[in-house]
């Protein structure tokens, strides 16, 4: 049943709830304050655009959420409880998946294997001695998820390095869906993609939100911002300069905020 691989639809009440709540989050690198007093709610079923000029602090904020960096100030709540996201593994346990353009998948492994890295299905042929991978089963499972999302890959046995950037991005997002992520962070997912590939990634992003997943979407592309986000947070020199509903703003205002940090 295909529905089994998808996150459950949220109830109306849950749809409003914040999945993550950052309060006063700061990150210092030596003398540089890369993040300063960031308050931010990341909500289920919503695409939050994280915008800002080069060096504004976007990737640093993502790395704090993904357990790569520890904040030097502030607190993070997940589902209403204060958490310490001490490592990327801890972030995965909390249902936080980060998709980077090229680092998300292992290039010299087939598509199906990439779906199951660190979560391989096996059975013991001889207990504690010979363990066999359930390749067929993993392939069927990956194929089902890709079919459900209307992602066409020539074969699940080809290595990921023979696929296009857009196909890789689609697989990385499909994997996050397969593992029922609660929050998916996309750091510049459409940079260097062809136009049809960009459209596919934007569609998948909306599908994720439609399934009740919280999505953080980083981009410098204003068309993407206007097409895919529900809300926007603008960072400027490590501070949050503004938070807006996408429907209530326009390209000029967003660009002005990114450049000046002021309304
Ligand atoms: N590991 C690090 N050590 C020291 N300084 C860092 C480190 N990582 C980031 N910085 C600094 O923190 C600031 C924010 O960087 P960050 O990578 O978060 O920016 P960004 O908003 O993602 O920019 P871009 O749009 O160019 O990707 C920059 O001044 C950067 O030089
Ligand atoms: Mg960055």
TrEMBL record:
The reply on keyword Secreted is no
Keywords of this entry: ATP-binding, Nucleotide-binding, Sugar transport, Transport
Tell me yes or no: is Nucleotide-binding among this UniProt entry's keywords.
Answer: yes
The record's annotation in InterPro entries points to: AAA+_ATPase, ABC_carbohydrate_import_ATPase, ABC_transporter-like_ATP-bd, ABC_transporter-like_CS, P-loop_NTPase
Q: Which residues form the ABC transporter domain?
A: 20-262
What range does the record give for the signal peptide? none
- GO MF term list: ATP binding
PANTHER family in the record: CARBOHYDRATE TRANSPORT ATP-BINDING PROTEIN MG119-RELATED (PTHR43790), SUGAR ABC TRANSPORTER ATP-BINDING PROTEIN (PTHR43790:SF8)
Family membership noted in the UniProt record: Belongs to the ABC transporter superfamily.
Protein name as annotated: Simple sugar transport system ATP-binding protein
Q: Which organism is it from?
A: Labrys wisconsinensis
């Amino acid at each position: 049943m295909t529905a089994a691989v998808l996150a459950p639809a949220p109830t109306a009440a849950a749809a409003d709830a914040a999945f993550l709540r950052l309060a006063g989050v700061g990150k210092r690198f030596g003398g540089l304050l890369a993040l300063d007093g960031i308050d931010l709610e990341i909500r289920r079923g919503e695409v939050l655009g994280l915008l800002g000029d080069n060096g504004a602090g976007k990737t640093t904020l993502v790395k704090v959420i993904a357990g790569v960096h520890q904040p030097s100030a502030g607190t993070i709540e997940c589902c209403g409880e204060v958490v310490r996201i001490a490592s990327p593994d801890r972030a995965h346990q909390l249902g936080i998946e980060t998709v980077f353009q090229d680092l998300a998948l292992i290039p010299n492994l087939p598509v199906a294997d990439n779906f199951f890295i660190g979560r391989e299905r096996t059975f013991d042929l001889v207990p504690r001695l010979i363990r066999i991978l359930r390749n067929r089963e993993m392939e069927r499972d990956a194929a089902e998820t890709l079919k459900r999302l209307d992602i066409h890959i020539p074969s699940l046995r080809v290595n990921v390095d023979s696929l296009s950037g857009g196909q890789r991005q689609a697989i990385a997002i499909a994997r996050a869906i397969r593992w029922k992520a609660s929050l998916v962070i996309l750091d510049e997912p459409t940079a260097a993609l062809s136009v049809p590939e960009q459209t596919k990634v934007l569609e998948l992003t909306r599908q994720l939100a439609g399934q009740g997943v919280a999505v953080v979407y980083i981009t410098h592309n204003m068309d993407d911002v206007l097409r895919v986000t529900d809300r926007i947070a603008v960072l400027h020199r490590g501070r949050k300069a503004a938070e807006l509903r996408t429907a209530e703003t326009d390209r000029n205002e967003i660009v002005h905020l990114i450049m000046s940090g002021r309304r």
